[in-house]
Amino acid sequence: MLSVHFKCNQSRYLAGLLLLLPLLFLWNGVLIPVAQLLVRSVTDNNGQYIGLSNFSSYFADVGLVSALSHSVFVSVIVTLVSVSTAFTLAYGLVRSQLLGKSWLQALIQIPLFVPSIFPCLGLIYLFGGQGIISSYLTDFNLYGPVGVILGGIIFTLPHAVLMLVTTLRGVDVRLYQAASTLGAGAWRQFVTVTLANSIYGIISACFVVFTLTMTDFGIAKVLAGNYSMLATEIYKQVIGQQNFSMGATISLILVIPTCIAFAVDSWARKKQARLANNQIYQTVDKSPVRDWVFTLVCWLPCLLIIAVIGVVVWGSLIAYWPYDFSFTLANYDFDAFGYGWQPYWNSLILASLVAILGTFITFASSYLTTRVDTSIYLSGFMRLLALLPLSIPGTVLGLAYIFAFNRPDSWLNTLQGTFVILAFNSIAHLFSVAYLTFNNTLTRLDANYERVGCSLSVPQWQTVMRVIVPLSKLSILDIFFYLFVNALTTVSAVVFLYGTHTVLASVVILNMDDAGNIAAASAMGTVLLLTALCVKGTHMFLIQLLGKSTRIL
Amino acid sequence: MKRILFISCCMAIASTSSFANTQLAVYTSIENDRLASYKSAFEKINPEIEINWVRDSTGVITAKLLAEKAAPKADVAFGVGASSLLILKKEGLLQSYKPMGYELLSTKMRDNNSNPHWVGMDAWATGLCINKFVMKKHNLPSPKTWQDLTNPIYKGLIAAPNPASSGSGFMNLTAWIQMWGEPKAWAYMDGLNKNIKMYTHSGTKPCSMAAQGEVAIGISSSSFADNLIKRRAPIDVVLPAGGIGWEMEAAAIIKGTQHLQAAQKLLDWVSSDDVAKLGVKFSGITARESFMSAAGKKSYQAMIDNDLAWAAEHRSQLIEQWRQKYELAN
Mean pLDDT throughout B2-10? Predict the structure, then answer.
């Protein structure tokens, strides 16, 4: 007994050392750039220390404070609508036999496959000044809070669905069996089993949706009109007036609501008892009434989203909206617009790099903080660092990278404009959601696996490879594709970092839209969409394959 | 002996590589579809130099150059707004150089200084993009003067660039002040603000919004309109009577470049016939006056005497004032 304890302790120290690697990654990828932001916010544009005068002038400015309240207002509405819709969808997907389940699960994620500006183009096609539906509406103004809320819901819904499906999948199916044996009705089961066991996942989803909406720049840029919001305020300060120091200040103010969300999140985590001790692939009995209700309720938001996305694909195939609706492929001739296809290949390279390296590093980080007894300070610090990127707008993180690394004394200086720095930035930017999802999955796995492995003298890394990885492969797969499509579609994080040879398709879309070439922007977006759909097809195929093998296990 | 042979081999390799292509990192805001013709024309006469573009909007390029101040990545800024170059000059980022053919350039379009830091290539001026269909639908007359735009009949039908994020927006703001003086200009903007549907982040956007029928009138530029008209957008361009603001695309060398000679060659090329001809295609207004198109000359004559230095100096104060009045008051 004593010797077993000794061996396990040894692997603890090793794990502690291993945890330093992801810590080092986040230290360089998040903390140093953010520290640069802090420095910038208390210095003026010439590097002179000015204390908190930026902050006091911010809060003295009624207009900037109203931008803050606008952003919070919009984010709260989006969070309420998006998370409750996502929960309904996730519940339908996991706990009912609704029609076309795998189709629904794939289609609902379509907004993840395109830059956030893409559905905005769709909203313009449908509800803009010359929109297809606008002519039937009176006094409808898309440009303002309405547009941002609509765009935000479409943009965040798949993120929330992904998280909540993972959460609900992890609820031990035996709890339902026990509940029905004890005579609990459907509603009672829902409250005492489903809700009680997924509350942590719901809070995390709220946290993710809220911050995504707060920090997204693309939607606000295209649809906010004259409605001031924080993300566009940063843009105006940095891009419009080259006032980096005020831009840094506003970015830090954006972090405040996120820190509150983080505190709530950690509180929920403590309240939450260890949930299930085993993950069993859930099977649900048929129930015609319930299944039909969920088929209708879940497909409705999905179809609305597909309509918004589909109209953009249609827009890419017509000659000139809204005047000439004849069919054409001319918008796909990217050479004619001076871009060619290189940006597309660049995006594929970046997405592959981010998916492979990102899955590995986020899984490792999550494993080391949730399932290994390392120093609580180390793992606490790791959690804090891992959640930090979520609160930092991509544009700001990109800028922070330039502040931090584009100087002669930085080790990353020679890598400016290469795929290395783009991938580094993208993984850091996307770290949080991947990490939270893995945490959700890994905390659910029985804590005894490692102890058993340890007492059988199996090295812990073998326990990980043989037991933990196979048991979390569905999440690993989800995260791999999540990272891939996000890297394919991300704009804001890379807009400052791309170089001559690393122009990305998503950046090109934004530039095309700015130049008034909405059709070509739609076309490039459609190409990304089709790519992501192929990738998604592969994903689904693999899920089916692995799902079967899990059941055999 | 062997050692000498080895060294001479190394030297030979080194010297051939220096004769190979010099890679010039050129930051630009020129629209993508025009970049290829600049690149091929320049590389044709300078085969030893290869241009690598980094293209983005003026604001992003300026922010990028400022952010990279400590370790510049760019060799040349080419086709970047002159007012942005003035900011860079103030920050000490530009290397002064008087290129060949400097005298050929219009005095309006060069840094008139004994040590010039930048040279102009071509200019573009304010113009109104007017959607014929939408005007007809609302049965509205086309505006002729700046004052016409404050007429309540155009309420909610005008898009204009935001001075806080768009160079064009700032250009309009300073043009009005320079033409009419501050009190009258602000009074004018009060009136105009009542008719504005939306202030946009970029200067091209009002024109493309007009082209799409999102608004009837976009305060933008004729040079952006031409591109849209080529793609059959139903828009007309009107130059409002009483003077128009303008801005130029200019070029400058970034201080600290590793390829000074190649960078100087690119600056020398700015005054060439090639650049003038390419500039004519864009806006009709080029730094070589003899090359200007008829429409370009018309704009050139309507262009106000723009004091870029004055505008640069008062930039943050004017933008702040504008934002307090029209943006943050909502």
Answer: 48
- The residue type of B265 is K
Is the Cβ pair B67, A226 closer than 8 Å?
Answer: no
Whether A470 contacts chain B with CB within 8 A: no
Mark yes or no for CB contact B330/A496 under 8 Å.
no
Contact A323 B234 (CB under 8 A): yes
* Dist. CA B75–CA B65, nearest whole Å: 11
- B-chain CB neighbours of A143 within 8 Å are 197-198
Residue B102 to residue B119: CA distance in whole angstroms: 8
Query: Domain B125-245+311-327 sits in which CATH superfamily?
Result: Periplasmic binding protein-like II (3.40.190.10)
Closest-CA residue of chain A to B90: A46
* Alpha helices per DSSP H over A388-464: 394-405, 419-444, 448-455, 460-463
Query: pLDDT at residue B4 above 70?
Result: no
| Cα–Cα distance, A25 to A28 (Å, whole number) | 5
Q: Which residue of A has its CA nearest to B323?
A: A63
Distance CA A345, CA A353 (A): 13
Same domain as A370, residue A402: yes
Asked if A180 and A308 sit in the same domain, the reply is yes
- Per the structure block, which two tokens stand in for B277? 């001809």
List chain A residues with pLDDT less than 50.
1-7, 273-278, 551-553
Nearest-by-Cβ selection for A236 from B165, B198, B315? B165
Interchain CB distance below 8 Å, A228 and B205: no
Residue pLDDT, tens place only, A410-442? 778 778 788 999 999 999 998 988 998 898 888
pLDDT, residue B94, reads 96
In sequence order, which residues have a C-beta less than 8 Å from that of residue A373 and are 6 or more positions away?
A: A12, A15
- What's chain B's average pLDDT? 89
Read off the tokens for A174: 């035996």
Are residues A242 and B87, on separate chains, in Cβ contact within 8 Å?
Answer: yes
Q: What percent of chain B has pLDDT over 90?
A: 62
Confidence of residue B103 (pLDDT cuts 50, 70, 90): very high
Q: Rounded to whole angstroms, how far apart are CA atoms B233 and B208?
A: 9
pLDDT of residue A9: 53
Whole-angstrom CA distances from A198 to A276, A290, A472 are 11, 20, 18
Domain boundaries, chain B: 2-123+248-301, 125-245+311-327
A417 touches chain B (CB under 8 A): yes
CB B165 within 8 Å of CB B126: no
User: Are B49 and B262 contacting, i.e. CB atoms less than 8 angstroms apart?
Assistant: yes
Looking at the domain that runs over B2-123+248-301, which CATH code has it been given?
A: 3.40.190.10
Best mutation target among B22, B55, B195, B326 (most A Cβ atoms within 10 Å) is B55
CB-based contact A515 B204, cutoff 8 Å: yes
